[in-house]
Amino acid sequence: MSAVVTEDHRTESADTRPAEGPREGAFGNAVALSCRECGHRVGLGPFYACPECFGPLEVAYEFPAITREQIEAGPRNIWRYQALLPVPTDIESSPNTEPGFTRLLKADNLGRELGIENLWVKDDSTNPTNSFKDRVVACALSAARELGSKVFACPSTGNLANAVAAAGARAGIKTVVFIPSNLEQPKQVNSAIFTENLVAVDGNYDDVNKLASEIAGEEDGWAFVNVNVRPYYAEGSKTLGYEIAEQLGWRLPDQIVIPVASGSQLTKVDKAFQELIRLGLVEDKPYRVFGAQAEGCGPVATAFKADTDAIRPVKPDTIAKSLAIGNPADGIYVLDIARRTGGAVEEVTDEEIRAGIVQLARTEGIFTETAGGTTVAVTKKLVEAGVLDPTLETVVINTGHGLKTLDAVSGHVSAAATIAPSYTAFKATGI
Ligand SMILES: *Cc1c(COP(=O)(O)O)cnc(C)c1O
Ligand SMILES: [Zn+2]
Q1: Separation between Cα atoms, residue 66 and residue 194, nearest integer Å
Q2: Which residues does the record list as N6-(pyridoxal phosphate)lysine (modified residue) (predicted)?
């Protein structure tokens, strides 16, 4: 036991800070890192595990009074919520990717098909590298910079690598990104275009993640966005929750459906809603949070349906590669939130995921990747099962762009006909 403690302590104190420590105000209104399990607090630094119980650390704040008007006067990107994030007040003065403030679309056509009266799609496919990961990476980049990191890195299921490579390029910091070698080709190209250091690992995401933890422990000055700066990184997902509330006219939705890989995004959207309530920025009201997984990697959905807290890790086998985390770090908190809010965690087959992609495209003109197909398909399944209430206002999050997962649907949609360039030939198609 003591050997483990020593080992871990050495890893975590691998000091990526300049000798004088972070500058005053480097993390905005954040005051400490606090253990999610035991509440133990440590100072703001490159730490991610509680020194007392190894629980995950998360950012704790002392918020001043914040008004809607102050936020509305900010830039049309996530930095309008600077006061609510672990980033400095002068965050806009350093190059970053300025993600966020993506469209919240009233989805009446999809709503009609699913039987939901009041449906919205939060479309995060329009972020700079076409997934919600630009939000978390922008926050991680700020932390890496304030901690004096020399290398900006990540293990990734694809989208994260794209976002890290692009943000690092813009910031002029060396990037190294690690992916499973069986990843979709478009996602590989979308990283390789921004960085010379794309490393494909023969293994699944959980293997890649383990390797990253090992490297983080050995090398000085490496900021692995979702490992040793994970507490700061994860806060970026809160901006999805803030934006949805602001775009609804400073209101919370009744129901929200969110895809689950590690579970971080879902837990942070809930944290965002809770903060907005506490700050008096929205009215307190009940809302239900639903998680979406693929059957080929549904450890949280399985635990939810078995009514247990024991999440059994799985070996992923699904077309939803961006959700293919077999051992989800925040899965237990996803279960807590789904149960506390009266939501659920559900899973769908690869066939249903494909159908979800096509349905969103043909009803709303949005081409989503497999994660979004999963979310749409789970929404449909939950309505049919009578779990999701079709009379309540519902938001579905589309987290990524379909051009990155073309293979998932390319054999399933195609030209209706190939014809000679003549009117007769066209008429013969019956279109
Ligand atoms: C990473 C990712 C998710 C899930 O994120 P977690 O916070 O790990 O649950 C969802 N959708 C897409 C497209 C992603 O890339
Ligand atoms: Zn602890």
Answers
A1: 37
A2: 133
Nearest partner of 96 among 163, 175, 171, 164, judged by Cα: 171
Residues with CB under 6 A from ligand 1: 131, 133, 159, 259-265, 322-323, 369, 371, 399-400
- Per-residue CA distances from 327 to 11, 263, 324 (Å): 22, 10, 9
Distance between CA 29 and CA 83 in Å, rounded? 6
Nearest CA to 332 out of 66, 48, 4, 36 is that of 36
DSSP reduced 3-state for 9: helix
Q: Where does the pLDDT of residue 17 fall: very low under 50, low under 70, confident under 90, or very high at 90 and above?
A: very low
- The closest alpha carbon to 155, from 277, 313, 314, 262, belongs to 262
C-alpha distances in angstroms, 385 versus 133, 344, 382? 31, 11, 5
Measured by CA distance, the residue closest to atom 12 of ligand 1 is 399
Going from the Cα of 10 to the center of ligand 1, the distance in angstroms, rounded, reads 30
Residue type, 322: S
The whole-chain average pLDDT of the chain stands at 94
For the sheet containing 104-106, what is the strand order? 104-106, 119-123, 394-398, 255-259, 288-294, 344-348
Sign of CA dihedral 225, 230, 232, 236: positive
Taking CA atoms only, the protein residue closest to ligand 1 atom 14 is 322
State residue 9's pLDDT score. 38
What pLDDT does 11 receive?
40
From CA 96, how far away is CA 88, in angstroms rounded?
Answer: 13
Residue 186 pLDDT level (bands cut at 50, 70, 90): confident
pTM over 0.90: yes
The predicted pLDDT at position 19 comes to 53
**C-alpha neighbours within 13 Å on the C-beta side of residue 221:** 9
